[in-house]
Hints:
Layout: H1 3-13, H2 15-34, H3 41-52, H4 58-65, H5 69-81, E1 85-88, E2 97-100, H6 102-142
Antiparallel strand pairs: 1-2
Helix pairs in contact: 2-6, 3-6, 4-5
Amino acid sequence: MTADDAAKEGMTHCLAMRSRAVARALTRSFDDALRPFGVTVSQYTLLIAIRMTASPSITALAETLEIERSGLSRNMKLLQSAGLISMDDGGGARARALELTTAGRALIEKALPAWRRAQADAAARLGVAGEAELHRAFRALKGERWPHYSRSQ
């Protein structure tokens, strides 16, 4: 196989590249919807995860959401600067307990209709079968257990 053949195969069949492209497209749509609220979909997701998890630490949240702690820390600092979360330094940097502020809880509620519109748009673009397949693929790769929440849903 030549380098050109390998590159062509990678460009047309690589599941990792395709899934990342899909993720970026979905992220752009959600970011556009949430921009008027001053957050990205990554930050909105973090606010929701904090709400659904009883006082998580940055480390525990990173493990639950399976994201790098460094990227999570950057977003946490932005959310804290915006007054949307508070961080209790009592347990040291790795064990900081995260809490939503009143403004953070309000933002989740205010932005929910925009998030729902982005969700409906993504579902419409994927179609019923595409959306079902995305959920099926997620369960196949991540299982039913992800993520773990300690608050009632």
